[in-house]
Design brief:
Elements lengths: L4 H4 L3 H9 L11 H12 L1 E3 L4 E7 L5 E7 L6 E9 L4 E9 L4 E2 L7 E2 L10 E9 L3 E7 L3 E8 L5 E8 L17 E6 L4 E5 L3 H5 L4 E8 L7 H10 L21 E6 L2 E8 L2 E7 L5 E4 L7 E10 L5 E3 L3 E4 L8 E3 L5 E6 L7 E6 L4 E10 L2 E7 L2 E7 L3 E7 L5 E8 L5 E9 L16 E2 L9 E6 L5 E10 L4 H6 L15 E7 L8 E6 L7 E9 L5 E3 L3 E4 L5
Parallel strand pairs: 1-3, 22-24
Antiparallel strand pairs: 2-11, 3-10, 4-9, 4-11, 5-8, 5-10, 6-7, 12-13, 13-18, 14-17, 14-19, 15-16, 16-17, 19-20, 19-21, 23-30, 24-29, 25-28, 25-30, 26-27, 26-29, 31-32, 32-35, 33-34, 33-36, 36-37, 36-38
Protein name: Protein NDNF
GO cellular component, one term: extracellular region
Organism: Leiothrix lutea (Red-billed leiothrix)
């Protein structure tokens, strides 16, 4: 069975005449309208190529027609047509124009007549029609030459579809094969994970190197085809490559997309208004645990088997699952004056909860940010009284009633680990943390910098406190790590004894004069040094000023 290219190159009116000439010599009065309609349909039709997937764009309420011709090649010649809607439901049908057998008049071999003339419309029949958004395949057989017309219509909005016609059913399939049971099974559900499994595609066993499974996770609904999923993501503001298999190229990612490579698996996370849409391709593994989901949330899961050579795909029957509710977080009790050091896992993005029951009306909460970025949320008897991102050392003075219950919730706002020190105390309680100056910056004086010394200055307070200065020789490639990765809560006990320069006490009741300077000598020429100043409070808890990097002069 093959495409008759001779027929395709004929003018369309001759093509139509060829199909109908055996049945009628000319249209009668009663069949003229049908004849004209058939001609009109073919004049406005396009050729559908054999063995190639064709993308067709449909405008709302405007039908689009394609035709192909099959000629007699053997007793029964099979063919198939697969239509994949990529968005809204569509209507499509297949019409066939057949040439009926002609009867010769005895004694006249130059002309052929039909014993009972038939109308042109009797030569046309609809053999298939469908309405919906599922992938549908029509399998047909023909035993004689015929012309087929496919008509597509979208009544909801502009959309696009793909159509695949093949007359070669013996040399393999464009689309990967689905197993006899194409369902996805949910075999495990957690608070933030769902484990899925599905039966292997026969195509994986035959063409392992060119076939892979891809998973789509979203919070809206299942998708019946890969192109439908891609269309939905694009309509949410994303710009995706043509297929999921190819969408894993880093240079094609949009700002709203995040790519993750882990254990030979490629993931893309699209940030859309309706939640995240995740795409994961995991090779030929047929079991996968989806991580980092939100608790108590319903997710929809679709698995596609993708041919990497042709970009063609087939969809398993989608499923859905709801993650378990998050258990009540463990609450740590805060006691008067006691400092609690909290370390938060940025990857899990979970709240750490601290509870404090007031024994006095006025309460002080103190937070010293040690590392990373943290957001604090404080409630009193269930009502929010404070919520902000922490920076350095932060005090909250709150007034309520005796036996009020305060809940402090802390969460890291970045993926790396963060840490903070927390203290709750009554208003009259002697604070453990020192009184802070207006700024924790260390200033260096360029004009006073020499080959062997550096002069630095920092602000003090109205309260007499102890200040210790430390220095450390560093290299250029260590600057970022020392400045950004330092634990701002760590004290001098973490420093080498050789790094200590001096300790001193000072204060001034006039804050305009509460400034001190120190000249650090015995340095090497043209060398980078990291300088730190530690301020100690009444209870001995240190506060570290912002580190300062200074380079001595090369020549003096």
């Amino acid at each position: 069975l093959k495409m008759s290219w001779f027929w395709l190159y004929l003018p369309l009116h001759l093509l139509m005449a060829t199909c109908l000439c055996h049945s009628i010599k000319a249209p009668t009065t009663s069949s003229q309208q049908s004849f004209k309609t058939d001609l009109f349909n073919f004049y406005h039709s396009l050729i559908l190529e054999d063995g190639k997937e064709t993308t067709i764009h449909l405008l709302k309420d405007i039908p689009k027609r394609y035709y192909f011709v099959l000629e007699e090649g053997r007793v029964l010649a099979p063919f198939s047509i697969t239509v994949t809607p990529c968005d809204v439901p569509i209507e499509w049908s297949i019409l066939v124009y057949k040439s009926p057998p002609a009867k010769a008049t005895p004694g006249d071999h130059d002309t052929q007549e039909v014993s009972k003339p038939q109308k042109a419309s009797s030569m046309v029949s609809t053999i298939f029609n469908y309405k919906g958004n599922s992938v549908e395949t029509y399998m047909g057989m023909t035993s004689h030459s015929a012309l087929y017309l496919l008509e597509f219509l979208s009544t909801e909005r502009d959309t696009h579809i793909t159509v695949y016609l093949t007359t070669d059913t013996t040399s393999g399939h464009l689309y990967p094969e689905l197993p006899t049971d194409p369902r996805i099974d949910v075999i495990g559900i957690g608070h933030t994970t769902v484990t899925l499994t599905w039966k292997h595609s026969p195509s994986v066993l035959q063409h392992r190197e060119s076939i892979q499974y891809c998973l789509l996770v979203n919070e809206k609904h299942n998708y019946k085809s890969l192109c439908a999923a891609e269309t939905a993501i694009r309509s949410s503001g994303m710009k995706l490559p043509p297929t999921l298999a190819l969408s894993l190229s880093p240079y094609l990612l949009e700002p709203q997309q995040v790519m993750i490579l882990s254990n030979s698996e490629l993931s893309i996370i699209n940030k859309v208004s309706s939640g995240e849409v995740r795409q994961v391709c995991m090779g030929t593994k047929n079991t996968y645990t989806v991580p980092n989901l939100s608790p108590s949330t319903q997710y929809y899961f679709d698995v596609f088997i993708v041919n990497l050579l042709t970009n063609a795909s087939a969809a398993y029957t989608g499923t859905f699952a709801r993650t378990l509710e998050e258990p009540e977080p463990k609450v740590t009790e805060l006691r008067d004056g006691k400092v609690v050091h909290v370390v938060l896992d940025g990857k899990k993005q979970k709240f750490y909860s601290l509870q404090y029951q007031a024994r006095h009306k006025k309460i002080h909460f103190t937070f010293q940010l040690c590392r990373g970025q943290i957001r604090v949320h404080i409630t009193r008897n269930g009502k929010t009284v404070a919520s902000e991102n922490l920076s350095g050392l932060r005090y909250f003075s709150l007034k309520g009633k005796v036996l009020d219950t305060y809940l402090v919730q802390l969460r890291s706002t970045e993926e790396s680990n963060s840490s903070v020190k927390v203290q709750a105390s009554p208003h009259f309680h002697k604070p453990s943390f020192p009184l802070l100056p207006e700024s924790l910056k260390i200033k260096s004086f360029s004009k006073l910098r020499t080959c062997r010394s550096v002069t630095i200055a920092w602000l003090g307070t109205q309260e007499e406190s102890k200040y210790c200065v430390y220095r450390k020789r560093i290299e250029e490639d260590q600057i970022w790590r020392e400045l950004q990765g330092a634990d701002r809560c760590s004290g001098p006990e973490s420093r080498h004894k050789s790094e200590k320069v001096l300790c001193k006490y000072f204060y001034d009741l006039n804050l305009q004069r509460a400034v001190t300077t120190e000249t650090i000598k015995g340095l090497e020429a043209g060398t980078l040094y990291l300088f730190d100043v530690y301020l100690f409070g009444p209870s001995g808890i240190p506060v570290r000023y912002h580190s300062k990097v200074v380079k001595t002069r090369k020549k003096c």
